[in-house]
From TrEMBL:
Comp. bias intervals (Polar residues): 108-117
Region Disordered, annotated ranges: 107-129, 373-413
Keywords: Flavoprotein, Oxidoreductase
Enzyme nomenclature, EC number: 1.8.1.9
Organism: Aporhodopirellula rubra
Molecular-function GO terms, alphabetical: thioredoxin-disulfide reductase (NADPH) activity
InterPro entries on file: FAD/NAD-bd_sf (IPR036188), Ferredoxin-NADP_redctase_2 (IPR050097)
Key word Oxidoreductase present: yes
Top-level taxon in the UniProt lineage: Bacteria
UniProt-recorded name of the protein: Thioredoxin reductase (NADPH)
Amino acid sequence: MNEFVETVVIGAGPIGIETAIELQHRGIETHVYDAGPVGHTISWWAPQTRWFSSNDRIAIAGVPLHTVDQAKASREEYLNYLRGVVDQFHVPITTFRRVVSIRPIDDSANTGSNDSDTGGGLTNGVADGQTKAESALAPRWRLGISRRAAATDHDPPPDYFLDTHAVILAIGGTDFPNRLGVPGEDLPHVDGYLREVHRYHGRNVLIIGGRNSAVEAAIRLHRGGANVTLCYHRDQLPDDGIKYWLRPEIEGLIRSGSVQAFFRSRVTEITEHAVSLETTDDDGKPHRRSVEFDDVLPLIGYRQNTSLFRQLDIVSDLPSGAPLYDAETMQTPRAGIYVAGTAIGGTQSSRYQIFLENCHDHPAKIADHLCRERSSRADSKGATHQSHGDPERANSPRGDQGLRQRIELQPES
């Protein structure tokens, strides 16, 4: 027999952790799995990278986030905070285990019915011979789990299986760096992530991109003693794509020549020692040059690993590949499969719309929906039970309404 856990959260990022805590508060057994460590996406940020959002907007589960100088939290401070929250609420998490497959245990999990009881018109189907009450919390999904945690486009076969009633996909949307689509981009000195700034000291570094990640990297590497060149395909840096505190500094560095910038330029090929650039002149004619670089950092965004979404056939036809889901319950067209956090945005373009700070309501929506299933099952059996689905339940970490209003009126991310 496979082990059974009532609910599984895939993804130990902030919203995954917050969802697990919310479910635990409602008395729903939950276990979290992640292919990497706690806060995996944040862990690959360069050391001492700071959040763009204020601390109150990225705090979770009602636990305040304080920094020693009241500044926005750094990578290290936030990872430390997440570990503390996990320990405080005893969140069961298994790290470095990748969920590579999600399969229905029987046909009851394949599609939803039109029963309006669960909200939004997406409900669990019921196998022949079963009542809804008998099947409500029964195992519906079988998860295949691999001990090989490295993210690839082709996941390995599972090493073992786990049965569950409900799955929350809090997998984020930044699993792989975007590709340039040019020869040589797989060479070892080409990296879609900014690493420890110290390693670039005295080296010639080409940064490809012109928005926040690329601009912040250019500033930090210049400060760290690197010789930085910025390559961007437009006429100038975008007016609306750079944080206000970064723009004056990068523009000053470019004007002074401290950071060289190639605008209207694209990389056409990368070799072991040089990069071929094509720049469009004012008259529209292309000009080609070859420049030597020690490191090439294409900081042009990231894409989501949609393998689980594709398996479940819940991918929308949007360019982002965002999953299909009911905004009231966060349930997908597959009964018992939910999405949470930035995973709902799919692969977002440079104009991000979904951030941690506007996803804090997802855990409560999912918990409310699962509690309605549990209450329905108990009611049909004539049991006396406590209503765990009460949205004003005192022990549930709901956050404060004032913060939600400020986030809506003035997003920071």
